[in-house]
Q: What sequence folds into this?
């Protein structure tokens, strides 16, 4: 299965490269965000997402095959055993071989489906030894990120940019227009290095949210008072968007998730800058809170 998954991932990457060569406008589709007239899942950026896509496509093929077989069987029975062709109905009420077949065959189909399904669940739920841990807290209606293990821990809030803020960010070249889709661009992106295992610990501060990043194959509940965890390892650089996918209140639709995957060098530079930037912000907030007491 791992070989099949790896082969499919390589084939998908080759197909994507060919598509970009002939259709440059499609290059933005390599980023983890929805596209106009998109007909399929977002391009996978992790091993888990690749497995999910393969399993999704394979199950659809199986469903279509079963549906066509059942439809053909119904058409045959309607034609072969209608009243005109069989004016005197048969008296047969049982057929031992047929009854055994329609019991055993569905069981075998379910076993065939269960094997890759359990392998996928194992891949999703068994978190490997992590290189980086990021704690994510869902709030009404934004996300907070903490990097607790990075020697001089820091955290920050990530809020959606409104239209004015988004236009200013693009004009000031803080973010490229192709990477700042409406209702998804944020003021502070979570940054992780490419090719590293990232453990994501997820909780909530108020109501239940759901942390979802389609390109990573990640979808997990954020529940107050409970710490859930998942993981991903991005195999390419770029910016990958997600959203809360659990109705959590009035502004549920306006709390996007943004992860920027960068090289190890860029991540180290961002880390050093962020420790200083967000530590200063925390100090300033603490001083304001102290002064208002």
A:
């Amino acid at each position: 299965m791992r070989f099949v998954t790896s082969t499919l991932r390589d084939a998908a990457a080759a197909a994507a490269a060919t598509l970009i060569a002939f259709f440059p406008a499609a290059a933005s589709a390599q980023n983890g965000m929805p596209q106009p007239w998109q007909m399929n899942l977002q391009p996978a950026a992790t091993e888990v997402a690749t497995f999910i896509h393969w399993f999704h496509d394979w199950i659809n093929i199986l469903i279509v095959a079963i549906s066509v077989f059942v439809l053909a069987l119904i058409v045959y029975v309607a034609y072969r055993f209608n009243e005109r062709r069989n004016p005197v109905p048969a008296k047969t009420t049982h057929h031992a071989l047929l009854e055994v077949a329609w019991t055993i065959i569905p069981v075998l189909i379910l076993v065939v489906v269960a094997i890759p399904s359990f392998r996928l669940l194992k891949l999703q739920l068994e978190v490997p030894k992590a290189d980086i841990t990021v704690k994510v807290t869902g709030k009404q209606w934004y996300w907070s990120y903490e990097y607790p293990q990075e020697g001089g821990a820091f955290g920050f809030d990530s809020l959606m940019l409104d239209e004015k803020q988004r236009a200013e960010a693009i004009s000031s070249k803080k973010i490229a227009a192709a990477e700042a889709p409406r209702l998804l661009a944020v003021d502070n992106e979570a940054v992780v290095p490419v090719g590293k295992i990232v453990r994501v610990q997820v909780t909530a501060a108020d109501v239940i949210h759901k942390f979802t990043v389609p390109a990573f194959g990640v979808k997990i509940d954020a529940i107050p008072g409970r710490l859930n965890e998942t993981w991903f390892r991005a195999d390419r650089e770029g910016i990958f968007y997600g959203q809360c996918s659990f109705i959590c209140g009035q502004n549920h639709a306006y709390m996007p998730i943004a992860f920027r995957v960068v090289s190890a060098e860029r991540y180290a530079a961002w880390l050093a800058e962020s420790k200083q930037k967000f530590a200063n912000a925390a100090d300033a907030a603490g001083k304001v809170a102290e002064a208002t007491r």
Notes: Residues 1-5, 13-29, 283-292 have pLDDT under 50 and may be disordered. Residues 144 and 157 are 4 Å apart (CA to CA). The helical segments are 2-22, 47-80, 96-125, 163-171, 264-291. The chain is about 40% helix and 20% strand.
